[in-house]
Each structure stands twice: as C-alpha cells, then as structure tokens.
Amino acid sequence: MASMKKAKFIIKKMSAGLVKSLKKVGNVHVLSRIIIWIAVAMVVIALGVVCFYRPARDAVFSTETHTIVHVKSGDTLSKILGEQGFSMRDIDAISKNLKKDAEFTTLRAGRDKIDFVRENENAPISKIVIENGPWNKIEIDCGTPSTWQCQKIEIARDTRVAFKHGEIAKGSSFYLSAMEAGIPEGVILDVYDLLAFEMDFERDIRAGQKFYVLYEENFSSDKKVDNGHILAISFDALRGNVQMYRYVKPDGKSGYYDENGNGAIKSLKRTPINNAKITSSFSGKRKHPVLGYTRAHKGVDFRAPTGTPIPAAGSGRVIARSYNRGHGNFVKIRHNGTFETLYAHLSKFAKGVNVGTVVRQGQIIGYAGSTGMSTGPHLHYEVIKNGVHVNPMTVKLPAIDNLDANNKKIFMEKKAQIESTIKSLQDNPNQIVRLGDTEQKKDKK
Ligand SMILES: [Zn+2]
Q1: Ligand 1: distance of its center to the CA of 427 in Å?
Q2: What is the mean pLDDT of each run of 10 residues along the chain (445 residues)?
Q3: How remote is the CA of residue 371 from the centroid of ligand 1, in Å?
Q4: How many whole angstroms from 390 Cα to the centroid of ligand 1?
Q5: Which of 102, 176, 370, 414 could make a disulfide contact with 374, Cβ separation 3.0–4.6 Å?
Q6: DSSP one-letter string for 297-319
Q7: How much is the pTM?
Q8: Which phi and psi (to 5°) does residue 230 adopt?
Q9: Rounded to the nearest whole angstrom, what is the distance from the C-alpha of residue 297 to the centroid of ligand 1?
Q10: How far is the centre of ligand 1, averaged over its atoms, from the C-alpha of 2 (Å)?
C-alpha cells in the first residue's frame, strides 16, 4: 500500500506542476490546451494502472516454491515423504487416501516424480503433486487441518497415427533399415515381437525387402510424449508378404490378425499332429526303453503309424535334416530367436525340405517312422527354448487366436479404414491423422 500512496503523491505533484506551467502559457491556443490535458489524463491513467495492477503482478511472479524429487530405485513413497519431514502418522493417512481416492498403487523408479509445493520458501508444504507417468497426476492437499484430500488429474491424450516405410538396404539389418526409415526404437522392438514367429531377423533378411509400420503417437498439448500401439505392419518376408492389423474386439480384448482376419500371432503347436495320443511324456528322468538305463526324456512321444505326415509346429527355417543313432532321421526347425523344434524317428523327409528351407506352420516336413533308437513307429517331438529342452505340453507360448464370423466382419471394416489411412498418409505424410476408435495405450509395465 505504501507504493500506492507514493504514486498518488507523484500524481498530485505532477498535476500541480502541469497546472502551474499551463497558467504560464494561459494565452496559448485552445487546441494546445486540450492536447496538454489529454497528456495529463494519460499520465494519470498510466500511474493508476501501475498502482491497481500491483496485486495481480504479484500473483504472476509468485513466490511459490517447488521441491521436485525424482523417484530412484529403492525409493518408496513413505521414504520420500519421511525425507520431506512428514510424520509416520501423516504418511499413513496420505497412503490410505491415495489408495482410496486416487487408486494409487506404486511409484516407478526412473519415471515418476513428486513435487512438494510451498506458498513461499519458509511456508510449510501446502500441496504434493505425484506425477505417476506422463498421463496421470495426483494432487494431495496438505491444508490445515490436514485432511490429505487426493485428486486424480488425467492429462488429456491426443492420439495420432504415424506411417513409416522403408526397404532393407544392401548389407544392412532390419533394425538399421527401420531406424533409417525413421521408425522409433521402441516401435522397432514391438515389430520384432510381433513378427517373431514369422521370420528370423538374423537369417531371413535380404536387401530389397520392403516394410511399413502404422503406429500411434500420443501427444499432450501438441507435444509428443510417447508411442502407442502398432496398428498395421507389412513385411516382405522370404515366404511372401506378411501383413498384420491390430483389432480391438467389442469386449475390449485386442489382438493382431492377418489380412483375412486370422490370428496373426503365430506360435508353436504343442502337438504337431492333431489328436495324436501321447505315449511318453517329457521328464527329467526316465528309463530309456532301448538303452535300459535311466535317462532324461527331452521330448514328447506321439503315437503315429509309419508314413503319418508330420507338419512343422510353427513357421521357421530348417536348421538340421540329418540322421543320428538316437534320433534316426530328424528335422530341426528354428522358429525365432527363442524357439526351436525337433522331429525324430522319421521314416523319410518331405520333398524339398533341406537345411535352410523356410517352412510355414503346418507344412509337411517328413513322415513318421521308427528310425534310430525306437521301439516302434512314433513321433518324438522336442521344443528347445533358448537352448534348453522344455516340456512342449506346458511351456508358455503365445496364444493363437482366430476371430469368429461376427468379429471378422467388423475386422474387415476396420482394416479398410486402416488401409485408407495408410493411403492418405502416403499421399500427404505431413497431415495430422487420428483414428477415433483406437483405445488408448496404457503405460507399459
Ligand atoms: Zn521320445
């Protein structure tokens, strides 16, 4: 208020001065007088503005202070609150309210931060803001008396779609060619995961193979925050063009499907031959029927008369087509960086199946028999995960999911929508495109 008094004093003094000088020039033209009076009025208004807007200016140049704590590994909410001087009782009350009102579960190291807000640097903490990922904020009111009221604030997410395409350069990898095409690393890794059972990214890559990815980008106030789902992939694999489309069923479950609406996430079949009876299970130890002594059975035996066609349990590349004393005629297929399968005691190999042949899931690779160390015709089937034999009947495999007729119909409509989006982004890559019905990607755990 002192400043206001001062300003009023200045105005008074200035006005008095002006009046004096005006009296001296009392005989000047009327127009000049008017101009002088307008000038005086403007000075008065300007000074008034300065005085009356002082409080508002104070609010803009606030003295509010922020202590921002970045969550590190090993940090807990209690630990961080304790370090800021909160008592055990307050910490308990805050935790309870967080769970109840904001469905808060846990802090994530390296990602979350907590802002402790004070009115000024000497005031007690008035507000705690937990930034729980880029899309969630929780504000805790620390007013007196402290009720620790929590409010969850969701940050509006603007999901747009991006289209990137490229081609494997000579001597290059998919990874480098995809980076070259401007595909973000996280999206490339998602592509690897989706195509894992379709192709071997070390051995099935050739110069000139074309690919594209349509994926979501999440924006907040026009700033890109992260990438969302992959919506469509196309890859010229060795065995032909592979296409995948993301589809969200009416019940909210999502999956990837090929251009015909069949489940695109290929996996391994636990039993390569349908309805075959298991005659010997996988076990760490068992008495070998021929050798007589106890030895691990590294696979599963299926009853199969000689000549029964044996299909590949999954698509991949044949890495062995050979004979040994134990397995007899056998075929080994590498499906991806993780899985290999082996088929033993075959009477003969299928035509055209050689080391290096790329096979599809279900393609016949040989015929059942009793070659090698075997007591009768059967298929001995092994699954090798990261170099270790695992039980084909229990190993965790991605589910193979097919759509029913109704979902297939909706899928085809969505696919057409995705295709027209791709076309329009190809024609005009700089436009902003949103697909209204793609549900938002939750933060990765
Ligand atoms: Zn066996």
Answers
A1: 57
A2: 50 53 57 77 68 52 87 93 93 90 86 92 91 86 84 88 96 94 94 81 87 95 91 90 93 91 84 85 73 78 95 92 96 91 97 92 94 94 94 82 91 95 91 69 40
A3: 12
A4: 13
A5: 370
A6: E-SEEEE--TT-EEE-SSSEEEE
A7: 0.62
A8: -80, 130
A9: 6
A10: 97
